[in-house]
């Protein structure tokens, strides 16, 4: 598909440009956009850092400054992390904080037992997890709880059966999963449910072939992947769908070349970063998931990504957390 | 009056707007000097640039307030500070409906009795007329949180037959909400679905509202209540109304799945209360969905959604298979091939290695795969 903006489509990932893009994020603190995204700043720090790790440029953001920011988001009343100083603790920002500190080998700087207590307190009688004490429930939060406990080495404290039981109730006739019981299948929710089951070694509880079919059907003629039937392609689904399908070891069901081509065509080759689709404005969210998708597709010059955790594979291996999944073999630069 | 205070004021109190719009272009195009917004017949219009300016101010005001966690303590002793929290949190959410901490402040204000829950529900409905807001899961959860506060706290008795209703902590059927409130929720979700099609959280919310209506109807059936006919009619009308929605939005697969789910819940109630209902209206109820699926498939075979709809109620043998040949557009033919491959996969009559990719284009390989599939289905 040729880009409508007239820019040449690329077959290469411009790593230096994207590194620079990430480095300049958050520099313009007077920007409206900076203030409009404070509620997800902690997530954005993780997205930027993880994208750099995949591009083997973890050094491009200052470690001490990053750790200092993470710690400044500690909500002492809750015993967990908010997205920004002064923001309330939430499970979303808490996981991102743990992921960032794990990447920087600085988990010793936090009160792990309090964080574990916060996470466990969010499990509901039905087995699902809430995001905070106000009780919004979503299978995303269940996955976040499982990943967080796993990274902190406290997975043994989890009521696995109860956790899995709710996830299985979110399974739809098409083999996919929704956010809550009764919600339609959605690629993002499929990812979190599959990854959760992978961490808990419960993948045999689901019909993997039917799910793989649903996932493979997300690919559109232009190579991009969508989140639900008859919706538009979006680069972030390159990760949600691809990681789920690589956990199910069915990556060959996707046309890898076409998908890689789609992701690469969504690069902003002037200012750096990757957008949701060609011609749109880039952002750090689509940058990390585009790069992670390319890594799973074996794109040369990138580090391996663990699709279960969306963390460097070398890191999860070191922590003894690697599960069975298969990405495409890494191609070398010709 | 500061911008935050003036916009905050129109989002506070009991004269709330019923809908909100952020207006494009320069404020001067819309407003006269001294005006910060337009309000006509309950429709609030704020120029986008004005809203953004207000947002940046609200960030500062919100930051200057003590954390809303301290509401109800001596930290929040002055009405000025409380009003600052009320205005700034409302303005923050108007422009950034994903601002979790601002929404938490709203909940704490309700808990402290400083904001009325019913008024907050109305404000939330106005926010939900904004596209960006209607996409936020936290806004819909806020709605159900408020509804549960407004409803009665006595737990209802549910029986074994209610196990087909959704059972988790975010339900509405045990809040004792009257039909009028639940009907209003259907209106709110319809508006949101129009504003942003395939709205994931709006339809999920609608399903939970519908569960509450089903629960009320089952109770009425059990108690042989005089309300039974009215309630069953409401359910059947909802079914008809969504069927019509799908006719007007044939790519709305989310609505199709909702329709299929409620169809299964309604049928037993229609059957059990048939003595009370006008004879002609509901005799054919169980045929409606299959007929609807058939008619859409014939009319719109280029839409992937109608083929997905067909999968919800696939024919049990190949005598009921939709016409797979004779489609004129390449898109319709691709959809038909995909349906056949999926159907064979589900029957278990195709080898596991046939994937969606194998039938997506008209290559030699696809033709080969198709002949294998057709052969396997006729055996």
Automatic annotation (TrEMBL), chain A:
Cofactor(s) annotated in UniProt: Zn(2+)
Name the source's superkingdom. Eukaryota
Q: Which Pfam families match?
A: Prenyltrans (PF00432)
Cofactor binding annotation = Binds 1 zinc ion per subunit.
Q: Which reaction does it catalyse?
A: geranylgeranyl diphosphate + L-cysteinyl-[protein] = S-geranylgeranyl-L-cysteinyl-[protein] + diphosphate
What is an example of a GO molecular function annotated in this UniProt entry?
A: metal ion binding
One GO cellular component term of this record is: Rab-protein geranylgeranyltransferase complex
User: What's the Enzyme Commission number for this chain?
Assistant: 2.5.1.60
Q: Check the record and name the InterPro entries matching this protein.
A: PGGT1B-like (IPR045089), Prenyltrans (IPR001330), Ptb1 (IPR026873), Terpenoid_cyclase/PrenylTrfase (IPR008930)
Q: Where is the Prenyltransferase alpha-alpha toroid domain positioned along the sequence?
A: 14-311
- Report the enzyme's class at the first EC level: transferase
Q: How does it assemble?
A: Heterodimer of an alpha and a beta subunit.
What protein name does the entry list?
Geranylgeranyl transferase type-2 subunit beta
From TrEMBL, chain B:
Against SUPFAM superfamilies, the record matches this protein to: Protein prenylyltransferase
Q: Which UniProt keywords apply?
A: Prenyltransferase, Repeat, Transferase
Q: InterPro entries, from UniProt?
A: Prenyl_trans_a
Repeat: is it a keyword of this entry?
yes
Domain of life according to the entry:
Eukaryota
- Any one of the GO CC terms: cytoplasm
GO MF annotations in UniProt: protein prenyltransferase activity
Report the Pfam families cross-referenced here: PPTA
**Family per record:** Belongs to the protein prenyltransferase subunit alpha family.
Name of the protein = Protein prenyltransferase alpha subunit repeat-containing protein 1
* Source species of the chain: Steccherinum ochraceum
